[in-house]
Amino acid sequence: MTASQFFKTNTFIAVAAVGALVSPSLTELASRVADGEHVSLFGMGLSQTTYTSTVLPPLFIVWGLSHLERFFRKYLPEVVVQLFTPLLCLVIAVPLTLLIIGPLSNDGAILIADGFNWLVKVAPLLAAATVGGFCQVIVIFGVHWGLPPWSWPTSPRTARTFSRHSRPPRSSPKSAPPSACSSSPAAWR
Fold first, then answer.
1. With 0-12 CB in 10 A as exposed, 13-18 as middle and 19+ as buried, what is 164?
2. What is the pLDDT of residues 114-162, one digit of tens each?
3. Whether the model pTM is above 0.90
4. Looking at the domain assignment, is residue 185 inside a domain?
5. Can you give the residue range of the structural domain that contains 159?
6. Could you tell me the end-to-end alpha-carbon distance of the chain, in angstroms, rounded to an integer?
7. Are 68 and 86 in contact (CB under 8 A)?
8. In a domain, 172, yes or no
């Protein structure tokens, strides 16, 4: 709804288009494709992308709807604009998203996740800092589904790697006030 207001498009058309992407029947279709069944639309095979936990495809469809709606309102006769603008927008935008935009955004998320996994192998400290720094953005755009669970900062392995490289210099407890010592220096070993 916010995206439709931002892109200045009809909120009802945007909700209908995004609702079509998250319908249970489409989710069931995607799971059948994931199981190996070939399902096609207009002769093109559907991907196993599900849209219930993604952000980019709905944003792209609403952005595309804003352009389609302006185009149809400009070129359709005034008599039929109220009837055919929503119809044509949905007939064009939903299949376009299912066949092109959704799979492309899914492939982009997979590429980002593969790049992050490579970074974990090459520079684990930098990977931990990246996840920690961009955690909210990663979750908002749904990229976190492509990251293995052990790469998140809450996992013991990542926490050990991060603490090994970021611990403060060892000092005797006498040099720091008692309030600054949350644990004994032996806990850092």
1. exposed
2. 888 888 888 888 888 887 787 777 777 666 665 655 555 554 554 555 4
3. no
4. no
5. 123-167
6. 52
7. no
8. no
